[in-house]
């Protein structure tokens, strides 16, 4: 799913993708998100402290995280 947001006057596209988890652990599905300032271009994935893609429990959580972090990243 692609969401377009505006951060400090800049258009940013978020690509939110499902990531299958362990079927024996709840939640069984997570989401990862990448961002780009150019539509239809590959984006940069938000990574956690361990360097692996940061996992979110919902698309809404992923968007909220991006809205919080992108002003600093795009600064």
What's the short version?
The chain is an alpha+beta fold and 75 residues long.
Structure description:
There is one protein chain. By secondary structure, the protein is of the alpha+beta class. It has one domain (2-74). It has one helix and four strands; from the N terminus they run ββββα. The protein has a four-stranded antiparallel sheet, covered by helices on one side. It is elongated and about 45 Å long. The protein starts with a strand and ends with a helix.
List keywords for this structure.
single chain; 75 residues; alpha+beta; four-stranded antiparallel beta sheet; elongated
Number of strands: 4
Task: Report the order of strands and helices.
Answer: EEEEH
| Shape label | elongated
> What is the makeup of the main sheet?
4 strands, antiparallel
Question: How many whole angstroms does the radius of gyration measure?
Answer: 13 Å
Structural class estimated from helices and strands? alpha+beta
């Amino acid at each position: 799913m692609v969401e377009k947001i505006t951060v400090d006057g800049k258009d940013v596209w978020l690509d939110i993708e499902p990531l299958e988890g362990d079927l024996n652990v709840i939640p069984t599905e997570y989401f990862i998100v990448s961002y780009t300032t150019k539509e239809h271009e590959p984006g940069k994935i938000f990574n956690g402290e361990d360097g692996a893609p940061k996992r979110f429990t919902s698309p809404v959580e992923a968007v909220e995280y991006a809205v919080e972090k992108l002003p600093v990243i795009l600064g």
